[in-house]
Design a protein that fits this description.
Oligomer: heterodimer
Largest sheet of chain B: 6 strands, mixed
Helix content of chain B: 25-40%
Number of strands of chain B: 6
Radius of gyration of chain B: 12 Å
Strand content of chain B: 25-35%
Shape of chain A: globular
Order of helices and strands of chain A: EHHEEHEE
Structural class of chain B: alpha/beta
Number of helices of chain A: 3
Shape of chain B: globular
Radius of gyration of chain A: 16 Å
Chain lengths: ~150, ~110
């Protein structure tokens, strides 16, 4: 069985240009983790980019600008991502501890926004935690290495 | 993302090459908005070279669809790659933005 692949990034500015950096890190992860089936890569890419995009769109600095940290792990049987918003106001100020902010309900047919969290939840398990002055988002997806055609593009 | 436009007799083809995410979505919207303002009514977005789309990119396509319809036209999508199709299906937007196999066929039975 392949060893877990770990990839970390820190102090990324919470701005749209950072999405390209995250895409590059995901490509590096897949280059090192050839055992992960194409469908799981696609789902994980989408969920990670949506989550980072969500933090860029909605993250509020407290008091300075928000910075992002990221850890991506590809194990033999699962994919995990931890995305941390440093110096951010709570993404769930009035919610009970452990509650994922905002609902996972899909937006109306012709709405131009409001699909991000529902899309993430359709692709991965999502947990949220408020830890000091940081928001921590944890994504988890089991991989399907026994399916026919795994590991191919 | 590189956005290019090609005008045909019956439709205008807009091709997006690269990643259609939060950073690129306004550019696509600007280009299509300009085309509609210039008189194009039947828009086909060729997604064959769009390697990734997130919900911001999807939002831009929906915004453009609404602009086209408000102008009396329509917007359709063609050559949709697997990741983009996955996002469309998971959000049920494949019912609104129906994928066509190629741009020429998108309005052939309008």
């Amino acid at each position: 069985m392949p060893e877990p692949i770990l990839l970390c990034a820190d102090r990324l500015p919470a701005e749209p240009g950072t999405l390209e950096t995250v895409h590059d890190h995901l490509e590096d992860l897949w280059a090192a983790a050839g055992h992960v089936p194409a469908l799981d890569r696609m789902a994980f890419d989408t969920a990670v980019i949506e989550t980072v995009g969500n933090t860029i769109r909605h993250g509020v600095g407290d008091p300075g600008p928000v910075e992002l940290g990221m850890e991506l792990v590809a194990s033999p049987a699962e994919l995990r991502a931890t995305i941390v918003e440093f110096g951010a106001a709570s993404a769930a100020p009035n919610a009970p501890l452990g509650t994922v902010p905002c609902g996972g309900v899909m937006a109306d047919a012709l709405a131009e926004s409001g699909r991000g969290l529902a899309l993430i939840r359709a692709l991965v398990s999502l947990d949220f935690e408020r830890d000091g002055a940081t928001n921590v988002w944890r994504l988890y997806r089991p991989t399907h290495a026994t399916e026919p055609g795994h590991g191919t593009d | 993302m590189q956005v290019t436009v090609e005008r045909h007799d019956t439709y205008t083809e807009v091709r997006g090459e690269g990643r259609l995410n939060m950073a690129a979505a306004p550019k696509l919207k600007d280009v299509i908005s300009s085309e509609i303002s210039a008189g194009s009514r039947q828009i086909v977005v060729d997604l064959s070279a769009t390697e990734f789309m997130d919900s911001s990119g999807l939002g831009a396509l929906i915004g453009c669809l609404k602009m086209a319809r408000q102008a009396g036209g329509d917007l359709r999508i063609s050559q949709v790659p697997p990741q983009v199709l996955m996002v469309l299906q998971l959000t049920s937007m494949d019912r609104v933005l129906t994928p066509y196999p190629d741009s020429a066929s998108a309005f052939s039975r309008a």
